[in-house]
Amino acid sequence: MNLLYALFVDPWVQMGQAPDLLVQTLWEGLVSGVLYALIALGFVLIFKASGVFNFAQGIMVVFAALTLVGFYEMGVPAFLALALAVGVMFLLAVTVERVVLRPLVNQPDIILFMATFGITYVLIGLGELIFGGNPKRMITEQLYLPKGAVEFKILGGFVSLQKIDIAAAIIAAIMIAVLAFFFQKTRIGRALRAVADSHKAALSVGISLNQIWAIVWFTAGIVALVTGIMWGARSEVSFALQVIALKALPVLILGGFTSVPGAIVGGLIIGIGEKLGEFYWGPLVGGGIESWLAYFIALAFLLFRPQGLFGEKIIERI
């Protein structure tokens, strides 16, 4: 009986007794959720263009952030280093399209998926060779990202908001809005959807598959760079970030692999759910809920709604 009370009643009692702590937890979950959604959009881009889950997106986040910091450590001014990092992501997109994807046009999806595994380990090796394996500090001050915190008196207590979290949420929200517009309203966005439906059909109507793939991988690289800056500013830049980036997998399962709104809603569910679970239910199991709760939620969705909240239900008739 005590266990049932601790699981199903006491957390809600705590929320009512300390609403300011609840608001603080919800804010932290919101920031994480928006950043998860931004990461997930990078996966959605590649999936829409090729129909394949891009396992390399996580390491692209790390590689982009390390490139930015690496240029700065070489003595390059911060904003020039940012421009050069964008250039590196463009070169990476072109290289992937020419060397990896172009020879695999019309190959089975599993072949393309395995190719993203190869890209992952190439980038890991290249990153360790060039930048080393030690964590690095993100150049937040040099990029004029805010530091410090602001406090609000609310619901009988105080809520502290880190300025970098506010900036991260705003920048991520702007990126998500721009990408959503790109998907739905531009000619390239429509071509991308056509490529996702059928490579052969897209080629037959004059859509350049190679050009679309290069654009999509470059856009995913920009998303990875912004994500790496925001996550790096909140912690540090290291190869551990790729584990955080793979939290996009449960986000995509929740929202649907081809849905921009789904990536946003899924990111918020995972981000807020993790923080609430860790703060209110974590002590019951000794902590650590934040590391596995997202995958538990994703498993539940796979059992009852495998296409996700906004995904298309595929019906095959025999």
TrEMBL record:
Pfam families, alphabetized: BPD_transp_2
On whether Hydrolase is a keyword of this UniProt record, the answer is no
Q: What membrane topology does the UniProt entry give?
A: Multi-pass membrane protein
Which CDD domains does the annotation name? TM_PBP1_LivH_like
Any transmembrane segments, and where?
A: 29-47, 52-72, 78-101, 110-131, 166-183, 212-231, 251-272, 279-304
Q: Which UniProt keywords apply?
A: Amino-acid transport, Cell membrane, Membrane, Transmembrane, Transmembrane helix, Transport
Q: Which GO terms describe its cellular component?
A: plasma membrane
Residues making up the signal peptide according to the UniProt record: none
Which cell locations does it reside in?
A: Cell membrane
One of the entry's Gene Ontology molecular-function terms is: transmembrane transporter activity
Q: Tell me which Gene Ontology terms the entry assigns under biological process.
A: amino acid transport
**Coiled coil: which residue ranges?**
none
Entry annotated with the keyword rRNA processing = no
The family assignment reads: Belongs to the binding-protein-dependent transport system permease family. LivHM subfamily.
Q: What is this protein called?
A: Branched-chain amino acid ABC transporter permease
Q: Which organism is it from?
A: Alsobacter metallidurans
